[in-house]
Write a structure and sequence with these properties.
The complex is a heteropentamer of chains A (329), B (289), C (259), D (369) and E (242). With 289 residues, chain B is an all-alpha fold. In chain B, 74% of the residues lie in helices and 3% in strands. The chains are: A mainly alpha (329), B mainly alpha (289), C alpha/beta (259), D alpha/beta (369), E alpha/beta (242). Chains in contact: A-B, A-C, A-D, A-E, B-D, B-E, C-E. Bound molecules: adenosine-5'-triphosphate (ATP) (2 copies) and magnesium ion (MG) (2 copies). The site of one magnesium ion (MG) has 3 residues of chain E, from helix 1.
Amino acid sequence: MTRTTKIVGVGAVLAILLVGIPALINISGRWDLYYTLTSVALLSIASGGVWLTFYIGRINIGQGAYALMGGYVSAILVVKYGVSFWLTLPIAGLFCGAVSVLIGIPILRLRGVYFAMITLVLTEVARLSMLALPITNGAKGITNIPLPGAVEVFGLTLIPDFATLSNAKPAFYYLSIVLMILCFAGLYRLVNSRLGKLCRSLQQNEELASSIGVNIAYLRVVAYVISSFLGGIGGATFAAISQSVYPSSFTIADSINFMLNCFLGGLGYVFGPMLGTLVLYFGWDLLFQTGEFQLLIFSTVLIALILALPNGLLSLRFSKAGKESVGRE
Amino acid sequence: MEQVLANGLYLGAQYALIALGLTLIFALMNVLNFAHGQLYVLGGFVTYTIYGQLEMPFVAALFAAAVTLALVGGLMERFLFRTVLKRSVREESTMLLAAGTAFFLDAIILLIFGEKQRGVPKIVDGVFNWDFRLIMPYDRILIGFLAIFAIAAFVLYMQYSKTGRALRALAQDRVAAQLMGVNVDRYSMIGFALGAMLAGVVGGLLVTITGVNSGIGGPISIKAFMMVMIGGAGVISGAIAGGFILGMLESVGLSVLHSYGDITYLMIFASLMVFLSIRPQGLMGKPWG
Amino acid sequence: MSELLQVIGLTKRFGGLTAVNNVSFSVQEHEILSVIGPNGAGKSTLFKLIASFLRTSGGEVRFRGERISNLAPHITARKGIVRTFQETTIFKGMTVRENVVIAHHLRSKASLFGFFIESPAAARDEQEFGRSADQILEFLDLGEIKNEVASNLPQGHLRALGIAIGLSTDPTVLLLDEPFAGMNHDETRRAVEMVRSVRDRGVTLLLVEHDMSAVMKISDRIVVLNFGEKIAEGTPEEIQSNESVIEAYLGIEDESIGL
Amino acid sequence: ANKVLKIGFVGVTSGPAAAWGTSNVRSMQTRAAWINEIGGVKIGGDTYDIEIVTFDDQKDPKRAIAGMEKMAQEGIHYVVGPNVDDGAAAVRPVAESNGIMYFPYAFPKSLYQKPASNAVLGMIANYQSGPAIYKFLRDKKGVKKVAFIAANESDPLSQRDGGVAAANALGLEVVADKDTYQNDTRDFVPVLTPVLRSKPDLLVLSGVAPGNAPLLIRSARELGYTGFISTETAQDAKVLEEGAGDLANGFISVGGASTPEIRSKAMEEFIDRYTKMFGEYNDESNTKVYALEYIIETLKMNPKGIDDIGEFKKTMDNFSAPNPYMKGDATLKYVGMTSFGQKRQVAVPMVVNEYRDGKFDTLFIAEVD
Amino acid sequence: MSQLLRFTDVELYYDHVYALKGVSIELNEGETVALIGANGAGKSSILRAITGLQGIRKGEIVFDGNRIDRGFGPDAIVKMGIVMVPEGRRVFPFMSVKDNLLMGAFTRTDKGGINATLEMVLGRFPRLKERYTQAAGTMSGGEQQMLVIGRALMAKPKLLLLDEPSLGIAPKLVQDIARSIVAINRDEKVSVLLVEQNSRMALRISHRTYALATGSVALSGESTALLEDERVKSLYLGGEVS
Ligand SMILES: Nc1ncnc2c1ncn2[C@@H]1O[C@H](COP(=O)(O)OP(=O)(O)OP(=O)(O)O)[C@@H](O)[C@H]1O
Ligand SMILES: Nc1ncnc2c1ncn2[C@@H]1O[C@H](COP(=O)(O)OP(=O)(O)OP(=O)(O)O)[C@@H](O)[C@H]1O
Ligand SMILES: [Mg+2]
Ligand SMILES: [Mg+2]
């Protein structure tokens, strides 16, 4: 790809996301799509984090823990301390990042299914902690969270108070889409920089990486922190949309879904988690009219997709000849 | 205390049996079978239908559950996992397939057997009561022993039968096993079927005690993962150890931490995390990268 | 010449097994020192201890007088002590050239964040590494296959790539574990040349190898291990005629089987 | 042809909690089919067929929001569900901004108190039925010591806390109030062993899932427990029979209007139709049959409510209609003044049942205001 | 001497890279044939083609009068009597020496025969008898090499394929292994196809030798003759490593 086609391509995508889709929604009157797409954007941010841990060779089934944590940090700050949502958003991410350092240092030594397992347990630990901690309001959750307020700089309103909007849906849509674009631009940059190569070297052989002087422990933690940061951001925004957060807002099922999004999109492609989330989450919604057969149809389609494209949906476009199979036909 | 230990042992026996099938499939094909719990549920429903509904003998029902599940497992391997394993770049991709299969089985089970909790008549009546120090209904004792018997039979089969040896070889080095004349496709299928069958047998055994419910597959799978990890993934003795440890941990933990109430499980899980970070390969697992 | 690396009373136990037992020797700057010994004698373990891939059970390693045992592997690597692996260990999913470029990481001046924003330092690194990688690949006769994915290479090339990776780190001391395994005579001869020229670049080399003709040709000195203990040390000539080494390791030449 | 009135359902019909939503959906579908079969329902000048639009939220609050958005998109103003606290709280902003009245089966008071005004509690809350049951057991059966056990999830834990408060208020001694179990528990013996050591007269299964109730009962009885066992949520007799057999005799729970003593002909026909349509009745539907009835009856009273929930809310305060499912002259009306300060709860008869040999016997009937 | 294996004009590709471009070799009953050649010349690929691990693009492989290059999986080929000892040992690390050996006899059903072979193998490699119940993964490299050769013999093969048995083995042990190969060929009447980087040894212990270069046969002939051949000397024996 030349530089110009790249710029044109990026411009086109931005235009579709920021202008095209809202316009289409206005024309078609499908206002419910705002929320669905907002969810897709937020969930794909969290999935993007999981994807990054895949990129250093770790199967992460613990993103739900950080999404939950992010949601609570933001909710508590907004409700109990009156902090502006806009400030709590980065704080939630950073808080999750900080916690993930503490958790990551011991657990990142684990590999393969062991890491997967321990993160799965982490999700449950997070849920139980939110039930038990004194500050989280326990089983009753935190409800009635105010909508994000205005952001003003020198009297200039940069972002209006969401509560004053006649309809907060588009506002949340823009917020989530912008976050998603930033997140994936960052990931794309990361993966295509030398940092990405280092991550890949970790994925392929940690011993060798350390023998050529890569500080693998540090790099692993860095990737995990970024991942958890993204999880926290996604969770915090969700809390703002539903104006409530409960210990069950993000559970093991979510952690598993984040991971599945990455698989479905394709582990080898930065934008994989985005596409995977779109298909998995949106697909379920699309099938809602099939009633009791929804799960059956959904899972059948899913299995068919995996059988057809075991390396992720994006492998369709980029696929080279598949891995040579062992044995004769 | 006697009660707590007996509870732990009984729980451990059933957990170990659940974990065995999962670890076998994992060892053979590096597939973390998210659908394991669903296979368990299916085994439970087959038993429920034949023993509970059609009122045929329990043994026949258990046998039918074993056969059905072996068949389902074999089909899953043949038509789903084999294809994906051959064509995927990263082996973990089968996790998505396993999850998809779990959804699929969930859907089928829900459609066929409904959303209600189901149970069957007791297989034996009466309660063993040692002066209220140890109370154990006879059916639990029977099921506990059947579970231990099944575990022993499986271990002996793996250790001393030709098929068992081939399965172990396959788990350790596929290519080398192939070069010894093991038909990899066939034995992968056998192994998968065996793993699924074990899940079905536990489901069938336990339906007499705890009944069965279309929705519990997912939670059961997750619990089974924990047992497998505690003991060490892909190691048969590890799965057994993991099952018993988790059983004991729950039983003893619930008793000892009783006064802490709400955070009992938080402490159990947190200690599990600490344990795994100290012993990254579980109790007896081979290192895994 | 000066003593670059000192191994002092090094010991490693695995459970009940003592894999390396109180081994001491020193390495001079710019020398090629080989470690030989039967299978399981503890040679690879010794290398892992020197490169901090294992924690010692006793004794220590000094580099330029400074104690370097039990550091993190990447720190030892940064100090200039780099090992290659006995098993052909490479980044399987990358091309040959990518392997070598990434192996230049140690020389990098930019920070992680610098990589991310592609700071000028990072860009300079990148160019520089590419050039150097191409040089190394030519030097090792891997130029033609530099765009092959590493997992498709045959044994011999994998070995060469392993050495290339080691070289790319610009080491002071390079530890090569069985670099000539799986090469035929001709290839071994060329590889030996290459190792010599690496030494001529100013690198000190330690190697473990079972190919005796190569070892005898290339080594300045040889250390022999058996059951974890050092049983001999000396020049190739001394070692070749050492009775206990012949007994434990070399065997008596037998023309009927060409050995 | 009749016009179509769409009523929504957003709740859980798959996964471990599928039973909750399924009994909901099915009673709605049964009733809708029945109404349509007899020619629809007359609201204002028009006759409507009822169409039920369902959305499975998989017990995930995020999905519940999506479901509510879908309902808004379909132009629906009346939705039954969600089934759990977190879902009910999460859909609130959507329901309010889209003019949707919803009927959750979740108990948090903040959903029904001002400033909230779009949620209508579809059943009797545990903090309403609990005190009545405990009082009955204290006065009539001499219960003094109570133990609570709950799954460690939001709904059961909240219900437990409510129950504990009620028991304390009644002067009962609470001997266990902190024991929990994971939702994946299948064997409750280890959980119950320490609880029963405190020798309670009454064991309360707070917010117990229908599937777990028989298991808990059976384990408790097999461990030699002889006291009372109760819960404040509706259960299914068949499930109890299969899961615990005779051991479940004497188990106390709260039901709707199906005990033979009070059920009307219409209720019998409803059960009949439900059974024909889905193969098997679910006693939980005794309660869940009401929400749809309330919506339709309220709209009948004020047809403007069809697309204006403001009108609906106005009507709620004075609404009253005969209760078709009960014998005698019981009425449908909105209640909740005591608990919520506004009428945001449907009045269903609080029938406290005792399970015996495969059926429920009525212990006593009460009302909520 | 009757012909046991014939390899005619075989082409073999990985993805789009060719590894063999028209290779023809033959092996007679009772013979030891060596394959030598540079890295990547295609030696291992020949063995992989015979065992069915890798399909061939063109040509034919005939064993004992039957074509075996189409329609047979690796397991079927083992049953015909071809057993390979792969590169890099590959024992079953968590199985005992005994179980490893029994795996070798996987395709056999004659209990008595298996026991007889087991005796023979343990007699030939006494070290294995000493370590009979030890987990194979904990044995030294040389011991593992003996184990895999013994394991292959357990199948009672007509043809034994060995891929670089001396790789990573101490000189003294290499001698032992070389002697074992000679003895197996001589005493057990097993034909051997040997891939070896140590060309001197390969030429010494084989009857005939093929030298491969980039996917085709460069030289072939009686091993004793080749040992004296100038081209072989300069290319593969290198006389002295200088
Ligand atoms: N991580 C470990 N745990 C337990 N034992 C080990 C470990 N690593 C090596 N050993 C044992 O230590 C001994 C020395 O092994 P090492 O790999 O150093 O041998 P080596 O001299 O390199 O042999 P070779 O020439 O075959 O490569 C062997 O007996 C080996 O089994
Ligand atoms: N799995 C594979 N995918 C792609 N190419 C391969 C694969 N295996 C081998 N090759 C290629 O096939 C050619 C022949 O390889 P082969 O392994 O047969 O060589 P060899 O003679 O055994 O070499 P060595 O002595 O190094 O083991 C090489 O060029 C190699 O790159
Ligand atoms: Mg070694
Ligand atoms: Mg080879």
